[in-house]
Automatic annotation (TrEMBL):
Protein's recorded name: Beta-lactamase-related domain-containing protein
Compositionally biased spans, kind Pro residues: 537-552
Domain of life, source organism: Eukaryota
Region named Disordered: 529-552
All copies of domain Beta-lactamase-related, residue ranges: 119-446
Amino acid sequence: LHRARAPRAPSRLMAARVALGVACLVLALTAVAAAGQVPTLADVLASTGEGITSARSRAAAAALAAAAPAPSSAKPGSDAGTYGCPVAAPRTTLPTPLPAALAGLVANLPSQFLDKVLTPAGALSGSLALVYGDQTLYAGGVGKLTPDAGAKDADADTLYRMGSVSKVFTSTMLQVATERGVAFGDEPVSKYLPDYAPQVPGAATPHAAADTTLEQLGSHQSGLPRQSPCTFGDCNISTAVAMQRLRNYTLLRYPGERPSYSNVGFAVLAAALEEAMNTTWREFVAKEVFEPIGMARSAYLPAADDGNVAAGYVGNDVAPLQDYGFEAPAGQLFSSANDMAKFMKMLLGTHKRRGETQAQILAGSTLRRWLRRRVWVDGTQVPPGYVLMTSWGAPWEVSLVNSPPNGPADFLQYEIVGKDGSVPGYNAHLLLQPELGLGMYAAMAVAPNASRLGNFDSTTAVAMSFQLVPVFQAAVDALNKGPTLPPNADDYCGWFNLTTQPAVGLFVTVNKAAGVLELDTAGQPTQQLQWLGGGALPPPPPRPPPPPPPPR
């Protein structure tokens, strides 16, 4: 029920971008000041500059690393274009206190989380965090840390093992390395691990896996099997020993083909990045992620005297909190609701610059590329009322949500970008809706002898998709009602040319019944224009006179 995504039709995004640009061009002719209301899907309409991902861009990346941009004091979206139009619309911020519908939803989160998610999944306790843009709307816990009488209540700082959500932090390491110009996703793993040489089925030469790229390792496209060359939970081996053992592995499929879920792929990716960045994965996560973001409760392993760690069970036994060793980058980390709220806000900073705040460790352009890049897409059609994971990212599991037929007409289909995790005694799920700026993280500890182990990942995905996103979308839409047309809107009717494409004729009319300006282009559906903000448009520079005719 919660597996798969066909790519969103590009026409909607293109139409939105065109509508924004032309609305700015046409409606900025007025002297009406911006009312400050902005579109919900601001990230979709924002600048599409991408992070540097290719080894061919090393020189540019090195220059960027040597002279990182200074934090901007301008508000998001306040950058002006040539004639004063905003380059990117600023994001909507929900008011405080929240609108009534959202306030009630947030207030009921703990009981709903317990009744709809934790109890069916056989949980002893759980934690939940909900963020919107830069706001933490909820962070808390329910249940008891242990089944003992008088046990402490779980709270927003209780630690849970996140399992494979740890892979997101390993992928973060690759994004940081790319921004610094020290490693790139399209580089072969053999550049950093020369001894990486598993067998490739059908290859003309043995050990042809040397050309496997870092991005393929981080997107389950390396062909490696699921587990590392060691016993799960007892993988205290060196990278050299792991490479030697992997020489005896045969890949499940040729690198770069459809994904095959692989924990060892992320272990190899982390080992390669350790060589590239001259650090260990453990040190990187602690110093380059946890510390600047302020994730003080998060840890590789909890301290022995930490009294706020949820106990998870396997049958009647407490799940051991062991070190996963070589395989740690695939599932080691512990975190809390409060800390994961901070991490999600960093991930949702797709409109920010790296270093704009101490916590913003990645540039918005990098985040947009990372959250939206699909390395494999299944064309499965999603019926109304379903959530299907139809595409893979790095390491994202991307679901397409098809709302019920009576759902919100302007947000009928959308994506949920997420990563779930499961290790003995614990489950976790990170879910993002980047365009709306909404994030949810849930974790649970399994109860002793749990008789019902439900689908924690599916339940949380459905809750995010059908209970949270539509309500938030409706609330934000209510805040985004643009100003009415000025009285002299008729003056804006007529033909316009795009200065960058003079041959493209644009015809603007006034729809009196709907109270909007409409844009017509040949062969394209009529688009409605909405004023998004900006100043008055100053006169354009005079055009140069036409060249004289050639002599006869």
